[in-house]
Amino acid sequence: xxxxxxxxxxFVAALVLLVMRVPISxxxxxxxxxxxLLAYAWRPGTxxxxxxxxxxxxxxIESNAYDFVHxxxxxxxxxxxxxxxxxxxxxxxxxxYEAVRVWLVRVPGGLAIASLFGCGGFSAITxxxxxxxxxxxxxxxxxxxxxxxxxxxxxxxxxMGGTLxxxxxxxxxxxxxxxxxxxxxxxxxxxxxxPGILTILGFILVVVVWALLDRExxxxxxxxxxxxxxxxxxxxxxxPALALMVIIIGGxxxxxxxxxxxxAVSLVFALVFGALxxxxxxxAFVHSMKETTYQTAGLFFIAVGAKIFVSFVSLTGVTGAFxxxxxGLGMESWQVLVCIVMLYIILGMFLDxxxxxxxxxxxxxxxxxxMGLDLIWFGVVVVKLLEIxxxxxxxxxNVFVIxxxxxxEVKLHSIFGGVAKFMVADLVVLALIVxxxxxxxxxxxxxx
Length: 448
Fold this sequence. Notes:
Layout: H1 3-19, H2 24-41, H3 50-69, H4 76-89, H5 92-104, H6 110-126, H7 129-146, H8 151-162, H9 172-181, H10 185-191, H11 193-213, H12 228-237, H13 239-253, H14 259-276, H15 282-316, H16 318-328, H17 333-348, H18 353-370, H19 375-389, H20 397-406, H21 412-435, H22 438-447
Helix pairs in contact: 1-2, 1-15, 2-3, 2-15, 3-15, 4-6, 4-14, 4-15, 5-6, 5-12, 6-7, 6-8, 6-11, 7-8, 7-20, 8-11, 8-20, 8-21, 9-18, 9-19, 10-22, 11-21, 13-14, 15-18, 16-18, 17-18, 17-19, 18-19, 19-21, 20-21
């Protein structure tokens, strides 16, 4: 059997299994292993011979798994995850929300804007959108509802704020993208900063307009009054979170740290602050380490599966056939790019972010390289599309996370309705990044 046929059917099988909600790690490892065995055992013009394919297929699986895990850059993943959990239990991340809330309490939609900043700061430290939505949802949504905020506005704000974890460094998606495209993770982190800021500003604009058009959706808390001393105290209280952001972003941009070193320094800082402030209890530390272990193991299993899947795709030559097919269509570069954008938006409706990215990169990266487009810029576009997928129905992982947190207060369809308003800002930011690549490339280029 032709290897390209095996590769094509393997991709279709992986897609179907993912839609059926089979865990992505099992899908990638299982499909790649079986199809690699078929490719070796059922060569063109010959009969199927199981014995002929078994040994090289096992060697492919073993070598790819071993080589990928023994990668120094991968150590930043558990370090950043641990730093995020420690920062949360030491209340570093929630201090951002408390500080901004004091300053913006009289601004239209001030509590919602504070929630956006809190989510942005949380995600900048933890690098996890789902963790951000889950943790900040328990804090911000009840607080806004307590002061009479519209349920749709309150829940949608945190659902959208949680997506910032995909774009603002450190981002697990950027780390995985760098591994599979051999791009600098430092450059990717820096490339996500300006688009991340634009996204936050777009969300703030939506909140302000919403609050001005519907005064009852975001009433100003009349019983809350803060003095200048209170504002100063709140600003000072947020310094640990600011310090962590400076370590990660400033350290990388200034050439002081690599991304891995920044992760290690961030973890040490969070641990020392938590211990000295007596906010980090022993039980919370143990829980943080357990959660770090679980999340890291899951991500590594997925990443190893993706590495094996990429090797299987290369073995079957299906990528070359796909690129040749697209070239044969005679499409302009912008038309191909539009198709790629639509592909990610559609897949994002049904698959999780990591699954969508790892499944598609072996096919779209050769196309992008063939068009002469910058892979750092394209990485930002991909992560932005995956960010949109986190809140796009029918799956919308962030929306379901928020719904699980506040299901008694807000219904799922109501959250999706609120998210739709924020999606306008998201799509505008995406269009700006696509139309003006310098938005993403300015900081990486200035570092060089």
